Structure formats: structure tokens, C-alpha cells
């Protein structure tokens, strides 16, 4: 999973990126301190792995991971190249989902590119640039596809879909809300539109608002805006996340407790990302390693096995499956089998979050 962190300059993007990836990206109080995208890979915290590794015990724990891409600050006119915008927009096309950081805090020492704090204006500036870039892309594709459709009637459906998407965008609406068939969804995905990517709005707030973010009028405006396009919203203090990133696990727990928080911003962001993209994790465990694997909800067992190795998918025979909760309640696999809690599943089995599985295969 690859998430692109976007936003206007000086909203806290690079500070947040540094905090969650500890990658040391440059962060400064002036626009465009990020030119090339910074990449950081973050292990997804999963306490289930640690507990499973003690049952076997496993030599090592291997969590699944998320790749974060810190994309330079966009400005008004980005779609026409303003502020290196075309280059930055191309980086966004490569990600699975957009993490849009919005400034929801006052601080006279940190300049805002537009002079004052207005999160909805900021969101609309970015969204407009994504939309204008998509309109230009679709217009070029329509011209090319209409010519090709004269000799290939199979492309008529694609031409009609391009026209529908163009009309939607030109009317100021989101293509995310179009009702499409499975076939149309596949075609739409091939367009790789910026404005169709799933989005999480990250409201960057001050430490004072962390415990009671409902009192922040800027955050409430972002929530109201996001509800209209079924987008996720989470609140984070990038500065606090930066402090948390310097602590070990025990210090982190104590620090969060002192702040009156249950989860770090990174934990909230990962949880929101999985929900937004419809992802789940299954688990494998043995003497060598306890490991988590991320798949799409609705993935059948053979395709899940293919995440481990293509040979396992090709030679799939069956899956021996038990839920994490059942295994932990039994304490070990022997007891779980004696109680009949380990199920034998075939090719049609749809994997669930927290499935602990052993794939049987023959190649």
C-alpha cells in the first residue's frame, strides 16, 4: 500500500512525514522545501504478531508495511505548472490513496501561503488542481480513443465513460460518486485519475486541541466537507507525533497516557487507511517467523496464498484456518485442533481479518 501525503506548503506535511517514518525529510518554514518526493516505509503495528510468536515461539516477527510518499506542496495553478505543479501531480498518480494534510491550527510564527487559516479554501485549491489535471488528461484520451473507436466498436463504451467523467468533473463534482458497473470501474481505474483516488483528510491541530478536537471549528468544517464525499477524517498534531517518534514503546504508551490519548496519530492513520482501501490482514506463524500479510477484503484463499509465493497459489490444495481469537483462547494449535476449531477451507473460501492460516500446496 502506497499513500501520498499532499497539501499546500507549510501545513505540516513534511513534519508529519518525518514523525511517522522517522526518515529525516527536510522540513522548513518556507514553500517548496520538498522537491522530489521523500519515501518512507512504515511497519504496521500489530500486537497479534507478538502474541502469536510466543505460542510457537517464532524466531522473528515480520509485520506488513505501508509506503508513505511525501509529495511537495501544491499551490493554485499547479495543473498548469505553477510551483512545479505538473511534476508534483505526476507523483500523486502513482499512489493508492491520498493523505491530504490540512492546517487547522493558529501559529503566527509559521507562515501560511495564503496569509490566513481557512481549511476549506485550502482543500478546494488542492481538489481543483487535481480536477483540472484530470480534465486535461481525459480530453487528450477522448481525442485519441474517439479516433481508435472508428475502427474498433469495442471502444465505444470507453468513449462514453470518458465523456461522463469529463462532464462530472467540469460540473465541479467528484468521479468518486459515479455509480459504475464492474466493467466500467475497471475502465475508470485505467484512467488513473487523481480525483478518483480514495482520500483521507488529516486535520493538523495543536496539542491543546488533541483531547477535545470537537471544539476546533476548523476541524468541524473539514468533517462537514468530507462527509459529502464519503472521505475519512482524522486529527493529528504533527508536532506531537514528532515527539512520539523519538520515544521507545514504553515511553510512547506513558506519553500518550499523559496526554489523555489512546492512540498515536500514526495508529489512527493506518486504521483509517485500511478502512478506506478495504484491506484486511491474515497471519502466518511457525518456528521461523510470525508474519502479517495485507490483502483486499473479499480475497479468496488461493489469491491470498499468492501474496506469499506464486507457487503456493498455483499449487493450492487447501487452507487450514483458525481465527486469531480462537487460537489465543486455546493457547496452542494442538488444543485448537482437539476442539475442532481449525477449519479446512477450499478454493472458494474468502479470507477474513485475523485468520491464522497454513496453506497446503503441491507444485
Largest sheet: 6 strands, mixed
> Helix/strand/pairing class, anyone?
alpha/beta
String of helices and strands: EHEHEEHEHHHEHEHHHEEHHEHHEE
User: How much helicity do the residues have?
Assistant: 40-55%
List the total number of helices: 14
Strand order of the largest sheet: 2-4-1-5-6-7
Strand tally: 12
Shape estimate: flat
The mean pLDDT is 85
Strand coverage percent? 15-25%
Radius of gyration: 23 Å
Low-pLDDT residue intervals, each spanning 5 or more residues: 23-35, 78-85
CA-CA gap between termini: 29 Å
Can you offer a commentary on this structure?
This protein is an alpha/beta fold and 363 residues long. A hairpin with a 3-residue loop joins strand 8 and strand 9. The model is unreliable at 23-35 and 78-85 (pLDDT under 50). The strands form three sheets. Strands 2-4-1-5-6-7 form a six-stranded mixed β-sheet, with helices on both faces. Strands 3-9-8 form a three-stranded mixed β-sheet, sandwiched between helices. A three-stranded antiparallel β-sheet has the order 11-10-12. Helices cover 41% and strands 20% of the residues.
Amino acid at each position: 500500500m502506497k499513500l501520498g501525503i499532499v497539501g499546500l506548503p507549510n501545513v505540516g506535511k513534511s513534519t508529519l512525514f518525518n514523525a511517522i517514518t522517522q526518515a529525516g525529510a527536510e522540513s522548513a518554514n518556507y514553500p517548496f522545501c520538498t522537491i522530489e518526493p521523500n519515501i518512507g516505509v512504515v511497519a504496521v503495528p500489530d500486537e497479534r504478531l507478538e502474541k502469536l510468536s510466543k505460542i510457537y515461539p517464532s524466531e522473528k516477527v515480520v509485520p506488513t508495511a505501508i509506503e508513505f510518499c511525501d509529495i511537495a506542496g501544491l499551490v493554485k495553478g499547479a495543473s498548469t505548472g505553477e510551483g512545479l505543479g505538473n511534476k508534483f501531480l505526476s507523483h500523486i498518480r502513482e499512489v493508492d490513496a491520498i493523505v491530504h494534510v490540512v492546517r487547522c491550527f493558529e501559529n503566527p510564527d509559521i507562515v501560511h501561503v495564503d496569509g490566513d487559516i481557512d481549511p476549506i479554501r485550502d482543500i478546494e485549491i488542492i481538489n481543483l488542481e487535481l480536477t483540472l489535471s484530470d480534465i486535461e488528461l481525459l480530453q487528450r484520451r477522448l481525442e485519441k480513443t474517439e479516433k481508435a473507436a472508428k475502427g474498433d466498436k469495442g471502444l465505444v463504451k470507453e468513449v462514453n465513460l470518458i465523456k461522463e467523467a469529463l462532464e462530472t468533473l467540469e460540473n465541479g463534482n467528484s468521479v468518486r460518486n459515479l455509480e459504475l458497473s464492474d466493467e466500467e470501474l475497471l475502465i475508470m481505474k485505467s484512467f488513473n485519475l487523481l480525483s478518483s483516488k480514495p482520500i483521507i483528510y488529516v486535520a493538523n491541530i495543536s496539542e491543546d486541541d488533541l483531547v477535545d478536537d470537537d471544539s476546533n471549528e476548523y476541524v468541524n468544517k473539514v468533517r462537514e466537507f468530507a462527509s459529502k464525499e464519503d472521505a475519512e477524517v482524522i486529527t493529528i498534531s504533527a508536532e506531537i507525533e514528532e515527539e512520539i517518534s523519538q520515544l521507545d514503546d514504553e515511553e510512547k504508551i506513558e506519553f500518550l497516557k499523559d496526554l489523555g490519548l489512546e492512540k498515536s496519530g500514526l495508529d489512527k492513520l493506518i486504521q483509517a487507511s485500511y478502512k478506506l482501501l478495504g484491506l484486511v490482514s491474515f497471519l502466518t506463524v511457525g518456528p521461523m517467523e510470525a508474519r502479517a500479510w495485507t490483502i483486499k477484503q473479499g480475497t479468496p484463499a488461493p489469491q491470498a496464498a499468492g501474496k506469499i509465493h506464486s507457487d503456493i497459489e498455483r499449487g493450492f490444495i487447501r487452507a487450514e484456518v483458525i481465527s486469531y481469537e480462537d487460537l489465543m483462547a486455546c493457547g496452542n494449535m494442538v488444543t485448537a485442533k482437539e476442539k475442532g476449531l481449525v477449519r479446512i477451507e477450499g478454493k472458494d473460501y474468502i479470507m477474513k481479518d485475523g485468520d491464522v492460516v497454513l496453506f497446503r500446496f503441491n507444485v
